[in-house]
Amino acid sequence: MSDQHNLVLLTFPDAAGWPAAFAEAQHLPGLRMAAALERDGDGVLEVKDTFTRGAGVATVGSGLLGGLVGLLGGPVGVLLGFAAGAALGNAAEEHSATEAGAALIVLSPRVPDGGALVALEVREASPGPADELAAEHGATVERIDEHAFTEQVRAAERKAEEQREAEQKAGEA
Known about the structure:
By secondary structure, the protein is of the alpha+beta class. It has five helices and five strands, in the order βαββααβαβα.
């Protein structure tokens, strides 16, 4: 069976159950990113924790590569090459973080009052490990194909942009 790239949602009716599951989820095979959202009894939503496997690798790797290229220019070239490479790598990571923020906004209605949601971006060879984690911690599981979810996020972004443009036009009138 080939790996399935999914967004796995673990929903907790009680907010107390998510921290242990979140910590264990970081060791799931194929996990790329995780985020925990919690809604209090008054309906206020908060991002409680996030995890990204390999965070910072793009920034450091690009910086090192830039530094190696900069060797051609001597010591100053190494410094400038490292700085330029790190800036490009950081820009790539920042873009990824922005996309993750938009995804959390799309997921926010799924967080129950007084409960929590742990969202896992994972390449699954089998649903077993995530299902076992959910069962152990009293969560329900929902899977969304990564491509389908990406389209949901893009549709929400388009709708927000259209609304922003309409508000600007109304403000100009």
